[in-house]
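Look at one such:
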Amino acid sequence: VVALGPILWALSTSLKPTSRIFAVPPELIPSEPVPDHYYRLIAEKSPRVRIGSFGRSWEGRDLTYAIVSTPENLLRLDEIREANRRLVFEADKVSDEVANAMPIIVWSGYGVHGNEASGPDAALLVLYHLAAGGREVDEMLRNMVIILGPNYNPDGRERYVGRANAFRGVI
């Protein structure tokens, strides 16, 4: 537990404006910026990451996703998307050779339940690990396109964070 303290503090502070890093009392779970801000930051720094939005929540918050793969696969996303569409809707017209040459597409969603803070937090670490790369990650991404949805329920997360921060130290 003691060893995780500095890691959690570093992650938490990377999500906050400088003025709130040393706030008293400390903000245990940052409400702003939220996970999609971190995704945007990683996408600006890594050639393996592209971000987009698949809609808005009921309260108008952006529903962000990240696509992670090799820069080469990201350049041919439209081609990969069309090949996948054909494989799903016209499977009888797709040869085994074409199907076997396609990268695997993985969709990983986090934060379905707003009161479960670990999902969006885990999504941040997964994105960082994939964006940072390394021999094994690079090999994996050559054959995969990974789509990460960091927070399916940003409205619920905001309610949870507000409540958790409002009652810290009460119990």
Notes: The beta strands are 49-56, 62-68, 104-109, 144-149. The longest strand covers residues 49-56.
